[in-house]
Amino acid sequence: MAVDTNTLQALGLSPAATAAASGTRTANNKLVSQDQFLKLMTAQLNNQNPMSPQDSTQFLSQMAQFSMVSGIQDLQSSFNSFSGAIQQNQSLSASNLVGHSASVASDKAMLPGNGTLKGEMVLPAAASAVTLRITDSSGTLMKVENLGPQSQGNLPFAWDGTQDGGGLAQPGLYTVKAEAVIGGQTTALTTQATAPVTGVTLGGAKGMQVELQGLGSYALSDIQSVN
Questions:
Q1: Which residue has the higher pLDDT, 77 or 152?
Q2: Which residues neighbour 10 within 8 Å (Cβ) at sequence distance 6 or greater?
Q3: How many CB atoms lie within 10 A of CB 177?
Q4: Rounded to two decimals, what is the model's pTM?
Q5: How many CB atoms lie within 10 A of CB 18?
Q6: Which has the closest alpha carbon to 196: 116, 84, 82?
Q7: Burial of 145: CB neighbours in 10 Å, binned 0-12, 13-18, 19+
């Protein structure tokens, strides 16, 4: 909290008197604290010319500035406490995700060993036909699923690794692409990948991160659903 010395001079406080009363100002320090201002104001009131007193409204104006700054600092302190409480609550919520499966927007999904690749596609409207294509990292088509007519909303999908050409695919990360025929037009669909939550990372440059098996790290706000 500080008051510009120009205002003090406007109140009739000379630079010399101001320096003597504060005792801490230097030539490069043009600001005084609230306590210093009160001392200066008291000195001014004790020594002012009774035939020509200073305008008290200027003192009140300065005190109002101090009160406003003090209020802003109190508000900032309260906000910091509130923000800390929110972060703590988010940490507890994120830690409860471990052991559950979570879905995030992604065109990649994980096929675990002896498991099933899982995800969802988002249909913005009812479709007369829906198709899911799964390719490996080299772009080789592994599976095509014709899912027929579907209603608007999220449509889950799963793949056990069985290839169209026969045999089982190796565990790993695969690309999923979905499209639907909506109103006679073929439309690409947004896909979500589902994977177990293996851990939560607190702090760091990116803040709190949720670790999804095979998919990597995501912010808590990226989580679309939890199963």
A1: 152
A2: 58
A3: 14
A4: 0.60
A5: 21
A6: 116
A7: middle
